Every structure is written in C-alpha cells, then in structure tokens.
Amino acid sequence: MKTEVKNTKRAVRGNLLDLVIILLLMAAIFSVVYRYYMSDQGTTDDELRQASVTFRVENTLPALASTLAHADPVYSAIDGEQIGTLVRHPMATTASVISQAANILVEQGNGQYVRVDYPNGDRVDIEGVMSCRGIVTDGGIFVLNGETEISPGQVLNVYTEKTAFSLLIVDITLS
Known about the structure:
The chain has 175 residues and is of the alpha+beta class. Helix content is 25%, strand content 41%. It contains two helices and eleven strands.
C-alpha cells in the first residue's frame, strides 16, 4: 500500500512540474508575439508633426529649377514613398525655389584656391523647401513619416513627376 501512495505523490509532483513548464513556455511565446506586434505597429497620423525641410541641390543644370513647382509631391528613390511636398521658398520671387550660379574652387598660380562662379551660368545651386510630416524622437532626431531618420547634412535621392535628383538637407524646422 505504501508503494501506491508513493507513486501517486510522484505523479502529482510530475504533473505540477509539467504544468509550470507549460505556463512558462506560454508566457515566453506571448511576450515574443507581443513585442513583435508592438514593434510592427506604425506611427499614427495623430503623432506626426508638420516640418519644413530646407534643402540644396548643388552644381546642377539650370533646367532643374524650372521643373520644381509649388505643391509637387517629392518621392524617395529608395522605396517610392512620398516624403513631402514642395512649397515656395520664402525668398523666391517668381519660381518655387531660388537658384544662383554654382561656385567652384580654382587654383591660382601661387597655389591658393579661390571660389568663383561657374562660367557661363552652365551650373547652378538650388535651394528649396518641402513640407514633410514626421515625429521627433527623445534624442531629438526627426523621423520622416515615422519610418526614416533624417538630419541636416544628409543626402537623399528623390524624384518628382518631372525629374530625379539628389538633395542635401540643410535644416529641419518643426511647424
């Protein structure tokens, strides 16, 4: 009779241990699924803030300035997603962007370098502004559309419906 009591106690202990292991496994699986689900959720539209992104396109053809018009959408060349909309530059008079003759470095006979305008106006530097939406992280980094980090000094390959170009981000100002 004692052997029957011992076997019953071992069975209960074994069943209890199995139950604890199963509960721990379920908790681990739940935490992995929860973390994946939370990281997969995108930023909601309520969290996005408007920002003005000032950019430059350096040493380019003058025709590019005439193809950039107010309210043109700007798309990322990497994934084709819209990253912003062109707005009129505050200092622009007739066009949406401002352009000026591109500067180049020229070596003088004495070995010194000087900046001079590109000859014949064949090349220009363009400055423009686009309106974008994004969030600002705790570290102060602007995240475009809640997905792509951008900062001044970064070069982005973009396109509009009329042209493709690389722009240099100069400034990001939250509205």
